[in-house]
Amino acid sequence: MKYLITGATGYIGSMLVHRLAESGREVVALVRSVEKARSMLPAKAEIVPADLTDSKAMEDVDLSFDYLIHCAAVTASAEMRNHPAEVTASIVNATQNVLGLARRAGLRSMVYVSSMEVYGSLDCPDGHRAGEEEAGAGQVDILAARSCYPLGKRMAENICAAYAAEYGVHVKIARLAQTFGRGVLPGDNRVFAQFARSAMKGEDIVLHTEGKSMGNYCDIDDALEGILTILTKGQDGEAYNVVNEENTMSIRELAELSAEVLSGGRSRIVVDIPEGNLYGYAADTGLRLSGAKLQALGWHPTRNLRDMFAALGNSLK
User: Fold this and answer.
1) How far apart are the C-alpha atoms of 280 and 240, rounded to whole Å?
2) Is the CB of residue 287 less than 8 Å from the CB of residue 130?
3) Three-state SS for 109?
4) Which ranges of the chain would DSSP assign to H, the alpha helix?
5) Across the 317 residues of the chain, what is the mean pLDDT of every consecutive 10-residue run?
6) Domain containing 82: what range?
7) Which residues contact 154 (CB under 8 A, 6 or more apart)?
8) Is residue 171 in a domain?
């Protein structure tokens, strides 16, 4: 079986390519930068340059593959704030073009890698876990530029559902919690990586919000297994949360855990909130995701946040 991976120089995509190649699978990586891909992907992987937003260029992609995992996405909050039009195009247009490719290929299965941000500012009372059917209940400010990401992801999911319903494309959706652990890329600037770098130096961990927003997390290896489970066992047109329910805590608690694991408690937590949303962070949410639907397919997470920070620390070293 041949696997086509988009966004193969990103964190999730590159780790998937390594995982599949190491297990003897034939892998094709669709990338913008061939040079970058060659520096970070295994030699076994076939590297193909492609602009996913260019529908004409996508028509030239070889259709001889069986499975497709669409990972390409912008993940930097600053990009979402500073270039919202481009972020929207990269999500919506690219997803439509990739689904067109999947339709022409007549593949066995496809997974679109989405995000927990589709839930918006959905608050869950104590004891309640949000299932996949609640994604439309959370508020997203449609006039906020930063909403380009959650709204783009919602639209992309709807396009997946449309292609499944109208054209019979075997596409499923993986809604990832925030994912990290081993192999985090050197330039990753998401909050968990910022926390880890500060803690490893014994420096203060600076929060640019009050840290009240609830976070949902999943180890990278658990997430890869979840995506592949959805690919082979999921139902067409359906979405699945990929989350370890034990790894749910506020951003402040995440910072405190990072300090405990990686600095031995030397790092203090400091709150410094700039005027305006300078860093482009999503609105606070009390979201607690349910992983029950994916676990019903036989998937079970194995690593907690302590394990994840330990693996992250080793990778950063």
Assistant:
1) 26
2) yes
3) strand
4) 11-22, 34-40, 55-58, 77-82, 84-105, 148-167, 191-201, 220-233, 251-263, 292-295, 305-316
5) 96 97 97 96 96 93 96 89 94 97 97 97 91 94 95 98 98 98 89 95 93 95 98 98 97 96 94 71 83 98 97 93
6) 2-186+217-246+287-303
7) 118, 135, 140
8) yes
The total domain count for the chain is: 1
What CATH number is given to the structural domain containing 182?
3.40.50.720
Residue 46 domain flag: yes
* 89 belongs to a structural domain: yes
Dist. CA 56–CA 63, nearest whole Å: 15
Residues shown for the chain = 317
C-alpha distance across the termini of the chain, in Å: 36
Instruction: Report the Cα 300 to chain-centroid distance in Å.
Output: 18
DSSP letter (8 states) at residue 117 = G
Whether residue 207 contacts residue 279, with contact meaning beta carbons closer than 8 Å, is answered with: no
Whole-number Å distance between alpha carbons of 294 and 130: 13
Determine the residue type at 206. Answer: V
Q: What is the pLDDT of residue 265?
A: 85
Predicted TM-score (pTM) of this structure: 0.94
